[in-house]
Fold this protein.
Amino acid sequence: MLSRPPGTDPSGIVLRFPVAPEQAGQRLDRFIQGRIPRLSRTRAKAIVQSCAYRWDGRRRRGSERVRAGEIVVLVRPPMDEPEAPDHFDVLYEDDVVLVVDKPPGLAVHPTATYHKHTLWWLLRERYGEPTPQLAHRLDRDTSGALVCGRTPEAERSLKRAFEDRRVDKRYTAIVRGEMPEDAGVMDASMAPAREGLHVLMEVRADGLDALTEYRVLERAHGRTLVSLHPRTGRQHQLRVHLAALGYPIVGDKLYGPEGSAPFEEYIAAGMEISRDLLERLGHRRQALHAAWIRFPHPETGAPVEVESPLPADMRLLWARSD
């Protein structure tokens, strides 16, 4: 296959998106919106108009319908990306499954801001083609265990396991305040927020069911180290549930005591955290870590359990709370 369509910018960034059978027939702009997280429909249309090509160099239109098995290609102009970690550790690996230990600050998929500074790019650099495909997501600032399929069949099997809730996960968080109960359940439906940033979620009676179990590990100096067991997988579920309970995660720019104001300030400052903002947040990122995961192996069905140790920044944050 050509490295890039003829006639396109040789310094441009080439993105390839295979079309799965269940995506066949979608409009091209809708397909791109679904593949790039947090992309608005308007922005997706603009990206297709300026960046979508056929492999013979012809431009594509947003109204075109994608076909199963084709590879949609975008050629985006070079961009200055914010700094991010350029490494990851491997927690588990065999011929069909890869579990990586994602560091905080590393985006998972390409976005409007990140391309080479993503786990997707690092996987491609380390493993080449076929590149291991991510079976689920973690927020950029959330660290920990992330599962990939090394074959198309394994990827589909793993994604079905997530959809069918056959994957068990545990997270560790450091929250503001000392939670009085040693354990409990947060059972509160969630939906996209009616006001504010489009990425926000909120607890709402007319939302989708969302359930999180928690267990306190330690308490110290106005903070709690807590283990979280999500029974559902809603966007920002743990962050929203803890905030609604009155114990937001330390460092959370969207759901802390100031709401989304720190996030807006962070974006306005070019994704830089001022000393004042850092003092208000208490940590450079939300102190949330994907600590443990169990999933059925795509080939054998046997349970695979993988654990990720608490990262250095959260260990240091908690040590300061002792």
Residues 222 and 257 are 14 Å apart (CA to CA). The chain has two domains: 13-76, 82-322. Residues 152-163 form the longest helix (12 residues). The radius of gyration is 20 Å.
